[in-house]
Each structure stands twice: as C-alpha cells, then as structure tokens.
Task: structure prediction
Amino acid sequence: MWDWIVTILFQILKLIQGFAVDWGLSIIILVVIIRLILTPLMLKSSRSTARMQVLQPKLMELQERYADDPQRQAEEMQKFYAENKFNPFGSCLPLLIQMPILFALFTLLNNLPQYFSGENFSFYGILPDLQATPSGTLSQGMDVAAPYLIALILFAVLTLIPQLYMARNQTGQQASSMRMMAVVMAVMMLWIGWNLPAGVLLYYDVSSAWQVAQQLFVTQRVIDKAKKEEEERMANAPIEVDVVRRERKQRPHKKR
Result:
C-alpha cells in the first residue's frame, strides 16, 4: 500500500545520488529534505501542544464537574474546544503524516539492491555496507561491528532524549510515567534495531538528531511563546458564571 510513496522517494533518492555519489550522504540529504518539508507542521503541532498544557486545568475541571453526566460532559468539552478554537488532535497530525513516509522509507532502504542494482552501498567507509545489520556484523569481530553498534546505540539514545526533555515540562506522577515510558521505548529501539539494516539506522539517527536540535533551539521557544499567548488570552477572557436555575414550584392554593 506504500508503493506510490516508495516510488516518489525512489525518484528523489535517485536524483540526490546523481550528485551526492555516496549513498550515506544521499540518505542524510533525504532526511534534511523531509524534515524541512515537515517543519511547518511540527511547529504547528508544538503550538497545539502548548495550548493543550494551558487549557488542561480547565478541561480537568469540566471532567470533574460533569463526571456523573457523560453526555453533558462531552457537550461542555466540545463547546470549550469550539470557544477556544482548539483541535485536540492537532498535535497528532505530523505523526500521522510521517507514518506512511517512514514505512515507505523503511521499504526503500531495506531493499536498496532491488531498486539500484550493482551499487556499493556504503557511507564513506564509516559504514562499509548499509545493508548489513548490527547482529550480522557481530560475528565478524568488534572492529567490523563497532560502527554498526554505535549506530544502534544512537538509535536508542536519540529516541530517549526527546522523551526525557518533554518530561521536564511535566510534574508529579505524569513526569515519572513519561520518564519510565522513555526508558522502555529506548530498550525497545535496541531490540528493534538489532536486525535493522545500517541504512535504516542511519536515516533514523540523523532524523532523530535533527529532532533533538530542533526541540532544543526552535520548538521549546515556540512552545514558550504559545503558552504565554494562551495564558494572556485566558487571563483576559470574560469570566464565565455557571448559573443553575431552580425549578419553579407552584404555590399551593388555599382551600376556601
């Protein structure tokens, strides 16, 4: 089902390889192109995340107030989203868009010889064979396996860093849960990457390094600015009064 995306990425990689010569460099350039295209969506997602953090206390208040009336709770939350022009799924959009691209890239990089026959897939001698896996090179000795194992470790570490950075903005039980989840994900990445081709690891390493740098120098500033703007807007918003009208009871008529 990803064939058409694979075909597009194949044509892009073929064009890049025409002037880059080295396959590892071509993969890095492909990462940069994809990340630049996705940057506006990532920034929009960051703003949405920041707004969510500011609106969270109000949402929790609504959930508690109407805990015994799920229908009214859903109506009030929908009304709250509409009044604040907020889409709760806005922060998920970049991830949803990236998923088909990632699957297509995995297919392409995992099957490079089928798309480019007779080529020597290497990265400037650092990774002599981009088709080799960390598990496959270990039997050839540590001298051969070392670069592949480093790529594997980076695969896990660069997954861990953004998650821990996000946990910094949380407190209490939520922060602890996020840190625990980050460690579990990093361990899973080691397990998944053990049998991944070096070309796939290289792509993820460069892409994750880009994400970390973007998060440190761009995303956090965008989040801080969006949070400040949203807090000011909420502070200047008119105070809502929740009026509950009492049911009028008929006065008893006096008997004549």
